Automatic annotation (TrEMBL):
MF (Gene Ontology): transmembrane transporter activity
Any Pfam family the entry gives: SSF
Record CDD domains: SLC5sbd
UniProt membrane topology term: Multi-pass membrane protein
Location of this chain's protein in the cell: Membrane
UniProt protein name: Sodium:proline symporter
Top-rank lineage group of the source organism: Bacteria
Family: Belongs to the sodium:solute symporter (SSF) (TC 2.A.21) family.
GO cellular component annotations of the record: plasma membrane
Record key words, sorted: Membrane, Transmembrane, Transmembrane helix, Transport
Source organism (scientific name): Pontibacillus litoralis JSM 072002
Amino acid sequence: MELQQEPTLLWFIAIYAIIMVIIGMVMSKKVSNSEDFVLAGKSLGPFVLMGTLLATWTGSGSISGGETSMAFQYGVIPALLLMLPTLVGIIVLYIIAPKIRAFGKYTVSGILEEKYGKAARNVASIIIILAYVGIVSYQMKGFGFILNITTGMSVQTGTFIGAILIIFLAMIGGLRSVSQTDAISGFLMVGGLIITVPTMWVIAGGWGEIVSNVPASHMTFTGGLTPIQLLGYLLPSLFLLLGDQNMYQRIASSKNDASSKKAQIGWLIAMLVISPSITFIAFASRSIFPDIDPGMALMATTTVMPIAIGGILLAAAASFIITTGNSFLLSAATNVTFDLYASYVKPQASDKEKLNITKAFIVILGIMSFILISYFPTVLSVQMYAYTVYGAGVTPAVLAVFFSKRVTAKAGIYSMVAGVSSTLIWEVILSKPYEINSVVVAVPIATLVLMIVTLISHRNSHALT
């Protein structure tokens, strides 16, 4: 079946966008200082916190990449396996959440500074900015897919419109507004998917019809991937989530530990609904639209469903894409302001200056994200790259803060440099040998460097004594 544009669906997107802008403008009036802007005044209850955790994590990475692209390109089982790293990551964050709140830092870089010193904060800030610009970029392209489906406009033009909306909503009210729009988006997506799965199954002709229209490899455990290639898709999301500054900031913004725990339990339960739903919808889409871009698999199904159901799903997809883009853009700009500008350019900057600088860098980094997405062939490719830059460069050092007292400052810094360097060498210089994602190489290297340098440091200190 050929993909046909359905302009009527655009009304659902327009209504959603208007609601989000109104909420953003209303909440922006409650922002009085940088803590309000970055951490929502540490006022988030379990309901809103759950929604913002859910919506921030499940953006275009799932709607256009992640489960969607995996199900379309490789089949049901590889896509379902992609849910496991998220569940493991949520459980680990649940365990360390009280410690995250106790730090009370604006950024992960600030936490690393406590353990490893100022140099670690600088290195981590650069890594986070590089990774988050990449993540924001494919949120913009995901929105471009939506406008392409509904209006037929080019993906590039739609991406530009998505960039404007993401930048504006991130800039206007910070986490004060983003958390509220996230909560609405999260529950809209859960409801939309619950309705969509059975509807799509009927339209696609049932399991037997779907299976008969997909490649035989899509019904195997690895979908035609080698085990190490499959591992290369599973590990990036785990190591991003375990050290993700967005999640740390949201946990830190909760009212108390009880609110944080309730929100994370709700987040885990919601993911048990969302990930399989996206997988089965995208797999059915592979049967109906075999020739489309894999990143459009879920959104393309909205054109063959009843208008009301398709519109709800498309609005939900748009909401996740926009809110995730807002969140990562805000988080990256926070790094620039508090870890770089306030530390080196103007340490005596007033709180109002920091607030204005954060907003300015939201625009600058947003423009960089828009430019970056044109250099990657698919959403899934930039997703794996960005996740690994962060997961290998930051996460091993961050986890050591919570789980090891022996790791030294030198080990933390060397681990971060090794993780990013090995990622860039594998992806850029070596052009990803054997089609294996760099996480399989970069994370072990970063972890080994962390352990080896710690051991050497302790031996040297003992030798001196």
